[in-house]
Amino acid sequence: MENKTYFNKLRSLTKRKYSFKHHASNLKSYIDNNTIPKGLNVKLTPQTPGVKSTRFMKRWDDILFNCSFRLLQLLLSFSIYGYKQINSEINETFIKNLMSVTPEDMEVIQRRLSDIQRIEKQNFKAKQNKKFKRDRLNQQSSVLEEEQILNMLKESKSKQPRKRRFKKQKHSVQDNLVVNLSSIELTDSEEKLLKDMEVIQRRLSDIQRIEKQNFKAKQNKKFKRDRLNQQSSVLEEEQILNMLKESKSKQPRKDVLKTETLSSR
Question: Would the pTM count as exceeding 0.85?
C-alpha cells in the first residue's frame, strides 16, 4: 500500500473514531446529569377526552422522560461499540502495513494524525459547549479517554439482567349487605321521580346511540388512515370495568433510572 493511500485510510478511520468518541462523551454527560438533549426530547399530548389530573400528567411526562432516557442509553452503547470496532480496525491497519512503511514516513504519519486528533477535539469541545448551553447543562465540555470507553464496555457486559419479582397482595373482602325494597310502597313524589328518571334514561340512551354512531365513523376513518385491518368497535361498560379491576390488581413497578449502559449485541 502506498504511503498516501495508507495515510488517507488512517485519517478516515481516525476521524470516524473521534466521531464515536465525541458522541459517547456527549451522551455520557447528559446521562450523568439526568438531562435529555433537545433532539431526543419526546413531546406528545394525550388525545383523550376529559380533564387530565395533575397526577395523570405527571405519570405521562415521566413515561416520556423514561423513553427518552432509554434512547440515550441505547445510543451510548451503540457509540461505545462503534468506537471499539473502529479502534480494532485502526490497529489491524497499523500491523498489516508496518513493514511496508519506513520509520521516517511512519513518524510523519503519526505526527499528522496527532494534529488531526487535536483539531477534531477542539471542534468537538466547541460544539459540545454550545449544546450544553442550549440545554442548560451545567457542565464543562469533556472528552472520554480510550480507557474509560473500553471500561464502560466491559462493565455493560459484566452486568447481569435483574430479575423482577412481583407479589400479588391479597385484599380481604367483606360481604355486602342486600336490602329488599320491593315490598315498600312508594309515595306520589317518589313515583313521579321514578317516571322522570325513566324519561331521562330514554333520552340518555338516544344520546349514547348517536355518540356511538359518530365515534364509529371517526374510528373507521382513523383505521383506514393508519391501514389498520380492523372493524370499528366500542368497548362495553363491563369490559372497561374489568380492565380497571385488572389494572388495580397489578402492583405498579417503580422505574428507577440508572446511568448504566445497555450491553451491545
Answer: no
Query: From residue 242, how far is each of 143, 175, 246 by CA, in Å?
Result: 53, 20, 6
With respect to residue 259, please indicate whether it lies within any of the assigned structural domains.
Answer: no
DSSP per residue over 99-122, as a string?
TTS-HHHHHHHHHHHHHHHHHHHH
- What are the respective helix, strand and coil percentages of the chain, to the nearest 5? 65, 0, 35
Query: Which segment of 72-86, 129-143, 153-167, 216-230 scores lowest on mean pLDDT?
Result: 153-167
What's the grid cell of residue 160? 447481569
- 117 and 215 in one domain? no
Note whether residue 144 is domain-resident: yes
b/e map of 103-137 (b: 16 or more CB within 10 Å)?
A: eeeeeebeeebeeeeeebeeebbeebeebbeeeeb
What phi and psi values does residue 92 have, to the nearest 5 degrees?
-65, -40
Task: Write the pLDDT tens digit of every residue in 128-176.
Answer: 888 888 888 776 655 566 666 666 665 655 554 455 554 555 555 455 5
Q: Which three cell numbers stand for residue 19?
A: 466521531
204 shares a domain with 83: no
Q: Is 51 helix (H, G, I), strand (E, B) or coil?
A: coil
Query: Taking a C-beta distance cutoff of 8 angstroms, is the pair 232, 126 a contact?
Result: no
Q: Is there a single domain that holds both residue 24 and residue 123?
A: yes
Range of the domain at 197: 188-234
Number of domains in the chain: 2
SS3 (DSSP) at 192: helix
